[in-house]
Amino acid sequence: MKGIHLLLLAVLLCSQQALSLRCYSCADVENINKCLLIVSCAPTPSVCYKGSMTLTTATGETATVNPKGCAPSCQEASQVMQLIANLSNPTGAFNLQVRDVACCEKDLCNGVAQVARSLWALAGGLLLSLGPALLWALL
């Protein structure tokens, strides 16, 4: 029986999927909440990044581009976004400007920020779930 456990442990430890960082990846315009594509980063040291770029057309219309993905480092993600902004407009029809780049090192950390959990909500949920059992034990 121990042999099966050791074999499963070895498979899990050698699995590339288990060791790689997972990030959201997309270049969504305007609505950052709809970015749901999940990619596995390279097994080398990597980070998830979330950026914000402003696209301004020659007529003055603006749009926000929110790229997300994997990068070897935060500095490289920032450099690539800046390079895209500099090289993407050879005709001068629009202007693309990098506003912000944020990086993190946990699975799916470049998604939309989660709502903070309340201690009171946790206590209330625990009381509601255990309340009937406690009441039954007292009777």
Care to give the gist of this entry?
This protein has 139 residues and is α+β, with helices and mostly antiparallel strands.
What this model shows, in words?
The chain has a domain at 30-105. With 139 residues, it is of the alpha+beta class. It has helices at residues 2-14, 16-19, 74-87, 119-138, and strands at 22-24, 26-29, 38-40, 47-57, 62-71, 94-104. A hairpin with a 4-residue loop joins β4 and β5 (62-71). The strands form 2 sheets. Strands 2-5-4-6 form a 4-stranded antiparallel β-sheet, covered by helices on one side. It has a two-stranded antiparallel ribbon with strand order 1-3. The model is unreliable at 5-9 (pLDDT under 50). The protein has 4 helices and 6 strands, in the order ααβββββαβα. 17% of the residues are buried. The chain is elongated, with a radius of gyration of 23 Å.
N-to-C span: 46 Å
Helix content: 25-40%
Please give the radius of gyration in angstroms: 23 Å
Average residue-wise pLDDT: 77
Q: What is the multimeric organization of the chains shown?
A: single chain
Name the structural class: alpha+beta
What gross morphology would you assign? Answer: elongated
Order of helices and strands: HHEEEEEHEH
Q: Strand tally, please? A: 6
Read across the widest sheet, the strand sequence of neighbours is 2-5-4-6
Low-confidence stretches: 5-9
Q: Please summarize the sheet with the most strands.
A: 4 strands, antiparallel
